[in-house]
Design a protein that fits this description.
This protein folds into two domains: 146 residues, no CATH class; 196 residues, no CATH class. The protein is 33% helix and 18% strand. The chain is built from 17 helices and 15 strands.
């Protein structure tokens, strides 16, 4: 009995802690972490099915879905992973820079992209193979060394158009030339990175089978059965997933598989300004998300279109609810902004800078935001 009472007490503490961190406890209980979703769903982003699961590739999808495929190729998601030779940051021009006591140079050598590292007393070279990230915010570089995937100690950062130490990797500069070249990535970490940057990632992480970038089947699941059904003139339900049909909590968790869902952030214990990089988690803290059960990530962001960076592009979304007509006819009062009817997100979704990322990130906790410091 004492043990039961102890665990009931723990559960109560967790429950009220969660209640203080989100707007809607009922919704929280409907949600799951990404790990739970992957275990319990036939298809979910980051599922990591093997290549024999029936992937057909984006070219096959594009035969029927021409307009969507044409614009999706232009998105940052589609460019989340690429062969390093396709990177317009390091693949097209020589780059040289210094970090601490080490000098780096990256150059194209025939078909290869070669990184040289020196410290005055020695030097070494490796051939880079993959670029992670489109480069808008940043880009990192990976290569295979024996059975290990290796990552450079530095990242490229778009805002400064230059290179700096990879965030969160080292608390002090490398102490040796070997350390300055790169670090090995564990299989678990590599799998997590690849499944949010690529499509059709096999369980053995064989890079030759990976489809670079987030393409159609990364979100909709393997398409072979759907394609075969279309060719035969039938298309039974369940052969392909349409995320647009998911209810609000599921839809937000779906995008949160790579963009951090509520439970993913909560279970890690992360808090503070770094959570602005978790838009799903931040969105679910907002009153807008609680009051409008149709509000999801795709309300404002079409995953088949490049993200709009002009804040005015989102005014119509805000005014869809916050306008005089709604205020007069709706049973629920929807407050109107007394300051402006344009540039809504510039005030209600401020940007906060993460210094180690050399970039500002939009806070998706829609609210009357403080003008000064970030508030959890």
């Amino acid at each position: 009995m004492r043990a039961v009472l102890h665990w009931l007490g723990v559960a109560s503490c967790v429950f009220f802690s969660l209640r203080s961190r989100a707007q809607d406890v009922e919704t929280i209980l409907k949600q799951m972490s990404t790990a739970e979703r992957v275990r319990t769903h036939a298809w979910w982003p980051t599922k990591g099915l093997d290549s024999d699961a029936g992937y057909v590739g984006p070219e096959v999808c594009a035969k029927c879905h021409v307009p969507i495929a044409k614009t999706q190729r232009l998105t940052a998601m589609a460019q989340a992973l690429m062969p390093v030779g396709r990177s317009n940051i390091v693949g097209s021009q020589p780059r040289s820079f210094e970090l601490g006591a080490f000098r780096y140079s990256i150059r194209s050598d025939d078909k290869d992209v070669v990184m040289n590292v020196s410290n005055g007393s020695g030097e070494t070279s490796v051939t880079l193979q993959w670029a992670f990230g489109s480069g808008i915010v940043g880009q990192s570089y990976v290569w295979k060394q024996g059975s290990d995937l290796m990552e450079t100690r530095f990242n490229y950062f778009g805002k400064i158009n230059s290179f700096d130490w990879a965030p969160g990797r080292l608390h002090s500069p490398p102490q040796s030339l070997e350390m300055a070249v790169g670090r090995p990535i564990s299989a678990a970490e590599a799998g997590g990175c690849l499944r949010c940057h690529a499509t059709a990632v096999p369980s053995d992480l064989d890079m030759s089978k990976v489809v670079p970038g987030i393409t159609c089947e990364a979100c909709h699941g393997p398409g072979a059965k759907h394609v075969a059904a279309q060719k035969s003139g039938t298309d039974p339900a369940g052969l392909i997933l349409n995320p647009a049909r998911l209810p609000q909590a599921d839809a937000t968790d779906f995008c949160g598989s790579c963009h951090s869902s509520f439970w993913d952030v909560t279970l890690t214990g992360h808090h503070g300004i770094a959570t602005v990089r978790s838009p799903g988690y931040r969105l679910e803290k907002s009153k807008c998300w609680k009051s409008d059960k149709t509000l999801t990530c795709t309300t404002c962001h079409d995953p088949h279109q490049p993200v709009a960076h002009d804040v005015r592009a989102y005014d119509a979304k805000c005014q869809g609810c916050h306008n005089n007509r709604i205020k007069r006819t709706s049973a629920k009062h929807i407050a109107l902004c007394k300051v402006s009817t344009s540039n809504c997100a510039s005030c209600h979704m401020p940007k906060y800078e993460l210094p180690e990322m050399h970039s500002k990130f939009t806070d998706h906790n829609v609210r009357v935001a403080p003008k000064a410091a970030f508030v959890e």
